[in-house]
Specification:
The protein has about 70 residues and is of the alpha+beta class. It has 2 helices and 4 strands, in the order αβββαβ.
Length: about 70
């Protein structure tokens, strides 16, 4: 399930956000904790955090399968 609330995201204090894209699909993650566990987030939450410049953003091209 995708995380939808900014307050939940801020509690996790991610180091950065990841925009993974490939094969016409996109997925959005927040990398949290010392091991950078990837938590799925919604597109709208990703865009809001990106525009507000809350966290650094990393773009990755992956071979995504739906």
């Amino acid at each position: 399930m995708n995380m939808k609330r900014l307050s939940e995201l801020l509690k996790l204090n991610p180091g950065f956000l990841i925009e993974a894209h490939g094969n016409g699909h996109s997925r959005y993650f927040a990398a949290c904790g010392s091991k950078r566990k990837k938590i799925k987030i919604t597109h709208s939450l990703f865009e809001y955090a990106k525009k507000a410049d809350l966290f650094p953003v990393v773009n990755k091209h992956l071979n995504l399968v739906k």
